Amino acid sequence: MSIELRPADPSEIGQLGLLGAYVYGGAFGDGEDNYQAQSTRAEWTLCAFDGPRMVASYATIPFTMRAQGQPMSMGGVSSVGTLPEYRRRGLVRAITTRAFEEMREANQPIASLWASQAAIYQRYGYAQASVLRRYTIDTVDIRMLEEAPASIEVSRAGQAEVFDEIRDVYRRFVADRMGSLHRSKVLWQGNTFNDIPSEGPVHVAVARNGSGNAIGYMVYTLRGGRRDHGSRDQEIIIRDTAWLDIGAYRALWEYMARHDLVGRVGAATYQRMTQRRN
């Protein structure tokens, strides 16, 4: 039977979830209603079908990214995968070629994705824009050359309570940066605030100036029993942070240092492949 390339129908999104569950080893859940299926619209997809069966998947999520102080439309490539019995047939290359044509027609001059293996995507014209970096620090080693101004206070607050404020801080933080994405509320909920039980509840610390205005934040999780230490076995994982001046940056890290039972603070930035097309 010949292979057909086409967008998935809304009734077929469950197949995308199951295909991704296998290809990504359950990273987004194992069922047909996993996170991958729930966060992908049918009109974003371009998939390969053998009869009614989805055998390869691909999605282009419409994003806006910052580029030298200007907004730029971007196709966020996601859900790329092929069932092993259909690999080595050029399906991803065929889908990618057509997807790039559609991105051009949609005035998306940039295609970008987080890549598990950079070399795979370089053959399609992608270039490496950033790399994976993980770092950890013990709270006893958090020291600043200069203390944060006394006028800046940091306190913990609920997500809903401060969402509008920290979203504004993020917008101002990324305004002149390169490659940062505009975030919809769905993107905040699905990535920054998403619940990962093993990491614990999501907390938000907000830095405020003397006028009470938010000038920085950290989104993080806190969980005990994550470090082999007799009295300081807790771990903090920083999900997201932004600041509008160096005083807010210092104040946020001094706040982290006051977690006396935390033996490890960890954070990560993720590898992204970007391709620019004329």
Helices and strands in order:
Elements: E1 3-6, H1 13-23, H2 35-38, E2 47-50, E3 53-67, E4 70-82, H3 91-105, E5 110-113, H4 118-122, E6 127-130, E7 133-137, E8 153-157, H5 159-174, H6 185-192, E9 202-208, E10 214-223, E11 234-243, H7 246-257, E12 262-269, E13 272-276
Parallel strand pairs: 4-5, 11-12
Antiparallel strand pairs: 1-2, 2-3, 3-4, 5-13, 6-13, 7-12, 8-9, 9-10, 10-11
Report on the structure:
The protein has 278 residues and is an alpha+beta fold. It folds into 2 domains: 3-113, Gcn5-related N-acetyltransferase (GNAT) (Aminopeptidase, 3-Layer(aba) Sandwich); 133-270, Gcn5-related N-acetyltransferase (GNAT) (Aminopeptidase), CATH 3.40.630. The protein contains 7 helices and 13 strands. The strands form 2 sheets. A 7-stranded mixed sheet has the order 1-2-3-4-5-13-6. The chain has a 6-stranded mixed sheet with strand order 7-12-11-10-9-8, sandwiched between helices. The longest helix has 16 residues, at 159-174. The mean pLDDT is 91.
Mean pLDDT: 91
Q: How many domains would you count in the coordinates?
A: 2
Low-confidence stretches: none
What is the CATH superfamily of the largest domain? Gcn5-related N-acetyltransferase (GNAT)
Helix content: 25-40%
CATH architecture of the largest domain: 3-Layer(aba) Sandwich
Strands, count: 13
> Which fold name is given in CATH as the topology of the largest domain?
Aminopeptidase
Anisotropy-based shape: globular
Structural class: alpha+beta
CATH class of the largest domain: Alpha Beta
Largest sheet: 7 strands, mixed
Note the quaternary state here.
single chain
Which strand order does the major sheet show?
A: 1-2-3-4-5-13-6
Q: Helices and strands, in N-to-C order?
A: EHHEEEHEHEEEHHEEEHEE
| Strand content range | 25-35%
Distance between the termini: 36 Å
- Radius of gyration over C-alpha positions, nearest whole angstrom: 21 Å
Number of helices: 7
